[in-house]
Amino acid sequence: MAEVIIMPKLGFNMDEGELVSWHKKAGDPIAKGELFFEINTDKTTMPIEATSDGVVLKILVEEGETVEVFTPVAVVGQEGEDPDAVLAQGVATASLDGRVDESSADGKAEENKKEPQSEAQCQSGVSETDIKDLKLTPKARKLILDESLDPVSIAKITGTGYQGGITAKDIKASPLARKLAEKSGVDLLAVEGTGVNGKIMKEDVKRAAEHQAYTEDTSEKKVLSAVPYKGVRKIIGDKLAESKFTAPHLYFTDAVDTTNMTAFRKEMNQVSERKITVSDLLVYAAGKALVKFPGINTSLVDGNIVTYESTNIGVAVAGDNGLVVPVIKNVQEKSLTKVSEENRDLVDRAKEGHLKPEEYTGGTFSISNLGMFGIDNFTAIINPPEAAILSVSSVRKTPVVVEKDGEDKIEIRPMMNIQLSVDHRLIDGLLAAQFVGYMKELLENPLKILM
């Protein structure tokens, strides 16, 4: 029997994926284990293999298109089978690792019917039974139940999803916003809502219409390029915006004299099989500092302040698919050489977009180093759900006051600014200051990093 291949959900926070490239076309035979297509998740490119033999009967999503998870992207079956008939029946059998089929989803829906309804659902009478006849994406179904939305009003919405299915984006628009969007030709899928829970309001559509009219007038501006704000760039932007406007950021800056660190690296690299970089020393020093000050190594999870024993340190990398933060796990248990080896491997593959989801998730602290680009100072935004991030700037020869033989003297020293951004809900100023002071102590006396 033919199978409907859907966009897989490869991570807890993955709501959509971009189909980067097809390795098979309609009519091609395909064997189990063969590379079928590649997708961009939130941070990396993932190859998807076929799990059964057959023929590619139909391709539903174009290369470069971004769709919600569980959206049908192709149909695979035996030669002569009718893919449209399969799609019409709504068959979505799981065929790739990580997929969820409709039959299991329906089973879960039946189970949910037996479970006690939430207070909001009881008040409005909204249940799975009330919306069972609506053609909804999983995300839209969850939104209706979570927010106790009126099924009668939802039924009047013209869906923009696959085969007219109603998506969460369709629902997250007020009736006036939908009418105005139709009148002004604004695509609701491209509008960011400012209402409760991201709902698109009339004013959001008006702004989008004005922007659209403005950008269409290119008589006085030469446009080099225009690409949709979506995919990885949008995911990163949404995540950082949420961090910036949810977590009250507080910043702590100090300057580090790198004289001893430079000499230490030179001496280490004369005997080490692997070249030790500044990034390696930063990660290793941060691991040691997080063990000493575990209050920095925290997250806010479901209303609880969780303090971690593991020091999982992410290193921000600008790759082909945007910013990605590969994570070196349990730094506190590893040697400097091992950290250096993992760091180099993860960074190289991050730049190529070949990281696995587990290699850029699970961080407890992050480092963003722009020193190699000559940046004198910058402020980093915390990478949620972490509570702190360290930004590191370039080394510059700077006149500083040093004490020698009881006298103050001015000398030229190679100085490097470090700045710690913390979530002030979880981390107090004194703790942050102590952490920065200890990082400075370790970097200026690098032998302590190994002790």
TrEMBL record:
EC number(s) from the headed UniProt entry: 2.3.1.-
Q: Any keyword Nucleus?
A: no
Is-annotated flag, keyword Acyltransferase? Answer: yes
- For bias kind Basic and acidic residues, which ranges apply? 98-117
Family the UniProt entry places it in: Belongs to the 2-oxoacid dehydrogenase family.
Q: Keywords assigned by UniProt?
A: Acyltransferase, Lipoyl, Transferase
UniProt-annotated stretches for the region Disordered: 97-126
User: Which Pfam families does the record cross-reference, listed alphabetically?
Assistant: 2-oxoacid_dh, Biotin_lipoyl, E3_binding
Tell me its cofactors. (R)-lipoate
This chain belongs to the protein called Dihydrolipoamide acetyltransferase component of pyruvate dehydrogenase complex
- Domain annotation Peripheral subunit-binding (PSBD): ranges: 135-175, 172-209
Residue ranges of every copy of the Lipoyl-binding domain listed in the record: 2-77
